[in-house]
Design brief:
disordered C terminus, 6 helices, mainly alpha, 154 residues, two-stranded antiparallel ribbon, globular, 3% strand, 2 strands
Amino acid sequence: MNEGGFYQVQREGNPLVNELLIGTGSKDRWSMEQPVNDSQFAPFALDPLLARVFNAVYGINIPPPPRLDLLPLVTYAAPIAAPGTPAGPIADLLRLNTGVPPTPYAKRSRLGLIGGDAAGFPTAGGSRTTLWISRRVLLVAASWLQNSTSHRTT
């Protein structure tokens, strides 16, 4: 994006997308692209390198790509969107479903959607200021979403 003498050098929708999902050789290009062009980066979101590292180093069983369990984090789909809503593109966009009532403070999960709490701050993963973003990324990469109801952490 170019506005006069100013150039976009970074964009950040969801925390750590560029830092942990986008491949090293594509980070600069991703940072300067508009979200409308994010489909070219979908392979990074649906086959995160970090998950492969976990598999190689720790022997964690990671589902094979494409990681469709990660779609709720990169599309506008349930439980972020109302059932039946078109998912839209795979993109790093902030998404908010105002039809989801807020979770009472005592029942919030610091893991957001991963912890079974779909009513978080308007990021695809339902994060809040109290959420440890790095932990969320690590859990997502390690397939936590597939069994999120049995691993609820508050």
